[in-house]
Design the sequence.
């Protein structure tokens, strides 16, 4: 059984990757509007090879978030990302369901 | 996230201590708030601290915006509460299906059964087992508002004491396996035990959502569906 399916252990996954010497970032849903697929507090860990654990949407924005996470791993700066139908990139990485979501991305020291 | 904050958050989660990680979205600074202490990169005014602790009790992560602050001061409160718990009374076949389904749903599962032949590691690999009588087990495990209790034994000697203890606890869900006839007889016995009509009405029985479940796995899904509905499903019939 996949451990990351069990609720709320993405921080542990991030710590395990970090302990294994990988660079890691955490992405967290901090606010949603409308019918976003994952609730506030949902998390995804990303490592420097692009491996992902958990999710911040139904699969629509994870690639874009992982891309920004790689930047945070490099410069150490957190990022606040917004996705949704009002986003000009909606056709590319927006939520297919029409919801909106803000995701906070931070490197794990 | 700073190493120190990460380590303390992991320690709190491992020890099942409720905590909230508060992030200043403008600066990236973070502070951990516990029920009795605070540790981290910035201080919080008493009223904000009260609000964070209210969020912990409500299990409600989200943004905190200070309308008085023109700088757009914004905090994100991420509540990390211990896992919800499911106490299963009866190490029976259905419990063998319900335990993994509940674990997958994120619940911390304990199977209670004093009958040694049922509650074995071989039948429940990796599941917490408690061999006390159900009323003693519940006295030890102290169901709280984040705990569901389900009885599955069909044996009044085991189920009834568990139901009495569960109904007198803050458990958010109490369910009992058994047909309508079995359940009606059970309610009669519990009334004779001195439970009020309001108390016995709190039992979900026959347990589970009505989805025509037949096999142990299907019944486990119907029970987990009902527990989920009671927890999350405002305005849904459960």
Sequence:
């Amino acid at each position: 059984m996949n451990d990351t399916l069990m609720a709320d252990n993405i921080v542990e996954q991030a710590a395990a990757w970090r302990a294994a010497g990988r660079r890691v970032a955490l992405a967290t849903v901090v606010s949603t509007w409308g019918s976003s697929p994952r609730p506030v507090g949902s998390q995804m860990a990303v490592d420097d090879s692009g491996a992902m654990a958990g999710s911040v949407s139904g699969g629509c924005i994870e690639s874009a978030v992982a891309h920004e996470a790689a930047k945070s791993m490099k410069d150490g700066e957190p990022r606040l990302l917004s996705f949704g139908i009002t986003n000009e990139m909606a056709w590319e990485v927006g939520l297919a369901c029409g919801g909106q979501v803000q995701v906070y991305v931070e490197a794990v020291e | 996230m700073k190493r120190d904050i990460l380590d303390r958050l992991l320690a709190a989660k491992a020890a099942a201590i409720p905590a909230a990680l508060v992030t200043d979205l403008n600066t990236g600074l973070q502070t951990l708030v516990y029920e009795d202490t605070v540790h981290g990169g910035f201080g919080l005014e008493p009223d904000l601290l009260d609000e964070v602790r209210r969020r912990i009790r409500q299990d409600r992560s989200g943004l905190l915006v200070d309308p008085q602050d023109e700088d757009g001061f914004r905090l994100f409160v991420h509540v990390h509460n211990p896992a919800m718990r499911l106490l299963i009374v009866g190490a029976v076949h259905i419990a063998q299906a319900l335990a993994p389904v509940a674990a997958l749903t994120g619940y911390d599962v304990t199977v209670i059964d004093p009958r040694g032949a049922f509650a074995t590691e071989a039948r429940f690999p990796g599941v917490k087992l408690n061999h006390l009588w159900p009323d003693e087990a519940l006295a030890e495990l102290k169901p709280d508002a984040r705990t569901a209790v389900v009885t599955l034994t069909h044996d009044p000697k085991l189920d009834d004491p568990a139901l009495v203890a569960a109904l007198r606890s803050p458990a958010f869900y109490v369910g009992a396996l058994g047909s309508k006839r079995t359940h009606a007889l059970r309610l009669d016995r519990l009334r004779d035990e001195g439970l009020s009509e309001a108390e016995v009405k709190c039992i979900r029985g026959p347990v589970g959502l009505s989805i025509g479940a037949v096999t142990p796995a299907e019944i486990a899904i119907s029970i987990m569906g009902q527990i989920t509905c009671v927890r999350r499903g405002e305005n849904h019939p459960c």
Remarks:
- Chain A touches chain B through 24 residues (CB under 8 Å).
- The CA atoms of residues 14 and 45 of chain A lie 6 Å apart.
